Amino acid sequence: SCKYVYDLAELWYQHTGLPFVFSLWLIPTASKDKPAVRMLYSELAKIVSKVYNQGEFYATEFLKRFPDSFKREQLVEYWQHIYYNISDEEIAGLKLYYKLSGYEGELLWFD
After folding, report:
1. How confident is the model at residue 5 (pLDDT cuts 50, 70, 90)?
2. Distance from CA of residue 34 to its chain's centroid?
């Protein structure tokens, strides 16, 4: 059991009013129309849709393998709040994060 538990996304949003981006899946622009990339994207979209729409089922399956890891409600809520697209708000949040972190390199993929 942890003494302190923090929701980083919630703390960030309270502080900045912007969403927190935990990760990105980036590919070179020249690769976006390649059949393998399109197929991977399609398969990932199917998996995300299944987990989002059938969260109770997948939570039960997950907990069979990892019974002491999470509560069922936590898993379902987590899966229903993951966002798989990036908007101007997320980009603004990323830019602010990098600014506050002191990162001074170029972020070419934002432009």
Report:
1. confident
2. 24
